[in-house]
């Protein structure tokens, strides 16, 4: 997911169709094997979170052109399935959401450093690299030197972007003279990261208090999309070097409570709504 896939507003995330589309396939297709979904079913589900039919169709076309989805015709109907590239993206997101969690209590004191120097004319390559580094937990220590907590393997990212000849990667530990907490405050916008967690927690705690009488498949789609928006700029900094009462922990608890509450109902509703076909 790229930075411009979601608009950041003062009232929280305004989710764009591609972000919701990825969440849809991650929720209902990723674990189902080689499966394609009828476009009408996708239009129905995304319509439940406010995405119009034309926006869904144009997003499907755009994602096919970008190599994220594949088309499959069955009679007069068009079905869509995941490509290997989309599967990798969704599996990475699943790891970040369900396995790593938002709180880093297990930091071993190591850092990954990545230095790069790109020609001034390579604006798109620079944007793509910075976007992928941010998702991988890096922050800009200096303009061409980025840093992330822990041992982060970004060699595949660098290779995929075709930048291996322009990037150097190191793994190191900070000297005692380095004030780690000051470095963290200088490198990452902690206030902005914390505000995302607070906003998420407030909104979804209110949802829990309102009961579960709404549409579970739509609720889960919004939940996962908003959680990804919330954690995407959080590098999972060492918990012991963060401000007291860091809001990631209660926000994550709220996310998991709503996720557990909606999991089974959303699966049942998906079985009723989604028309699928085996991928060929």
Reading side by side through the largest sheet, how are the strands ordered? 4-5-3-10
The biggest sheet, with number of strands, parallel, antiparallel or mixed sense and barrel status, is: 4 strands, antiparallel
Order of helices and strands: EEHEHHEEHEHEEHEHHHHE
Shape: globular
Unreliable stretches (pLDDT < 50, length at least 5) are 1-12
What is the beta-strand fraction? Answer: 15-25%
Determine the mean pLDDT. 90
| Computed Rg | 20 Å
H/I helix tally: 10
Distance between the termini: 27 Å
How many β strands by DSSP?
10
Q: By helix and strand content, what is the structural category?
A: alpha+beta
Helix proportion range: 40-55%
Task: Please provide a written account of the structure.
The protein is built from ten helices and ten strands. The chain has helices at residues 17-28, 39-47, 53-65, 84-100, 123-135, 155-160, 180-187, 190-209, 216-231, 248-273, and strands spanning 6-9, 12-15, 35-38, 69-74, 77-82, 110-116, 139-142, 145-149, 167-173, 276-278. Strands 4-5-3-10 form a four-stranded antiparallel sheet. A four-stranded antiparallel sheet has the order 7-8-6-9, with helices on one face. The chain has a two-stranded antiparallel sheet with strand order 1-2. Helix 1 (17-28) packs across helix 4 and helix 8 (190-209) packs across helix 10. Residues 1-12 have low confidence and may be disordered.
């Amino acid at each position: 997911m790229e930075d411009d896939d979601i608009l950041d507003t003062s009232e929280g995330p305004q989710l764009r169709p591609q972000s919701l589309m990825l969440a849809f396939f991650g929720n209902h297709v990723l674990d189902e094997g080689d499966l394609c979904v009828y476009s009408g079913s996708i239009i129905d589900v995304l319509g439940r979170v406010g995405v119009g039919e034309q926006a869904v169709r144009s997003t499907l076309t755009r994602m096919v052109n970008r190599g994220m989805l594949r088309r499959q015709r069955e009679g007069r109907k068009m079905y869509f399935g995941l490509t290997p590239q989309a599967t990798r993206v969704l599996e990475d997101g699943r790891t970040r959401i369900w396995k790593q969690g938002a709180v880093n209590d297990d930091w071993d004191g190591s850092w990954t450093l990545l230095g790069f120097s790109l020609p001034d004319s390579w604006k798109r390559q620079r944007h793509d690299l910075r976007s992928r580094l941010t998702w991988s937990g890096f922050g800009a220590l200096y303009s061409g030197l980025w840093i992330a907590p822990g041992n982060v393997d970004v060699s595949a990212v660098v290779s995929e972007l075709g930048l291996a000849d322009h990037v150097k990667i190191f793994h190191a530990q900070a000297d005692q003279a380095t004030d780690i907490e000051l470095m963290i405050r200088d490198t990452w916008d902690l206030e902005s990261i914390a505000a995302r967690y607070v906003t998420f927690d407030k909104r979804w705690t209110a949802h829990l208090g309102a009961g579960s009488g709404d549409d579970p498949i739509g609720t889960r789609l919004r939940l996962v999309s908003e959680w990804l928006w919330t954690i995407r700029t959080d590098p999972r900094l060492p918990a012991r070097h963060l401000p007291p009462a860091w809001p990631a922990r209660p926000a994550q608890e709220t996310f998991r409570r709503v996720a557990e509450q909606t999991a089974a109902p959303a699966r049942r509703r998906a079985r009723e709504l989604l028309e699928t076909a085996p991928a060929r």
